[in-house]
């Protein structure tokens, strides 16, 4: 009977600890919510209080990033990096400010085949550690 009481006491103690943790998490959640509301309010005040006049001189001073074009060899690979087919020459056009990457292939009959990818469709850029000038790009399906 003694071990049974000891077990019940331990069970009650565990329940009390659990209730205490739940209470602490609830207080923490309320505290974080309060901080979030204060931060959002401060951001709104800052954006509404910011004068409109200084933005024009800043935009004149800020240099725009020109569209960059690169001649590249394109290797198409499977997910496990198994190469498919031969390397083909393409032109990459990168518009950083517009958030676009255009992949252009000139066909033999002077036609152009191109694909445009927006920044949100590019999942990952992978810099090769073995080949210094090799970059992998993983696109969203």
What would you note in describing this structure?
The protein is of the alpha+beta class. It has two helices and six strands. It has helices at residues 2-49, 55-61; strands at 68-77, 83-95, 100-106, 112-118, 122-127, 135-139. A four-stranded antiparallel beta sheet has the order 1-2-3-4, with no helix packed on it. The chain has a two-stranded antiparallel sheet with strand order 5-6. β1 (68-77) and β2 (83-95) form a beta hairpin.
The percentage of residues in β strands lies in: 25-35%
Mean pLDDT: 76
Cα-atom radius of gyration: 29 Å
Main pleated-sheet profile: 4 strands, antiparallel
So what's the overall shape?
A: elongated
Query: Number of helical runs?
Result: 2
What's the helical proportion of residues?
25-40%
Order of helices and strands: HHEEEEEE
Q: How are the strands of the largest sheet arranged? A: 1-2-3-4
What's the β-strand tally? 6
Low-confidence stretches: 1-8
Rounded to the nearest angstrom, the distance between the terminal CA atoms is: 65 Å
Features of the shown structure:
141 residues; alpha+beta; 4-stranded antiparallel sheet; two-stranded antiparallel ribbon; 6 strands; 34% strand; elongated; disordered N terminus
Q: Can you give me a brief rundown of this structure?
A:
This protein has 141 residues and is an alpha+beta fold.
SSE map:
Blueprint: H1 2-49, H2 55-61, E1 68-77, E2 83-95, E3 100-106, E4 112-118, E5 122-127, E6 135-139
Antiparallel strand pairs: 1-2, 2-3, 3-4, 5-6
């Amino acid at each position: 009977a003694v071990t049974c009481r000891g077990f019940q006491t331990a069970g009650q103690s565990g329940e009390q600890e659990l209730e205490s943790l739940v209470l602490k998490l609830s207080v923490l959640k309320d505290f974080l919510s309060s901080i979030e509301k204060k931060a959002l309010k401060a951001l709104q005040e800052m954006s509404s209080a910011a004068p409109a006049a200084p933005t024009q001189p800043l935009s004149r001073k800020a240099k725009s990033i020109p569209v960059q074009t690169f001649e590249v060899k394109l290797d198409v690979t499977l997910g496990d990096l198994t190469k498919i087919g031969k390397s083909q020459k393409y032109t990459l056009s990168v518009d950083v400010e517009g958030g676009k990457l255009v992949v252009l292939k000139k066909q033999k009959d002077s036609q152009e085949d191109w694909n445009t990818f927006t920044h949100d469709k590019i999942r990952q850029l992978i810099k090769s550690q073995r080949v210094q000038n090799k970059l992998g790009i993983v696109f969203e399906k």
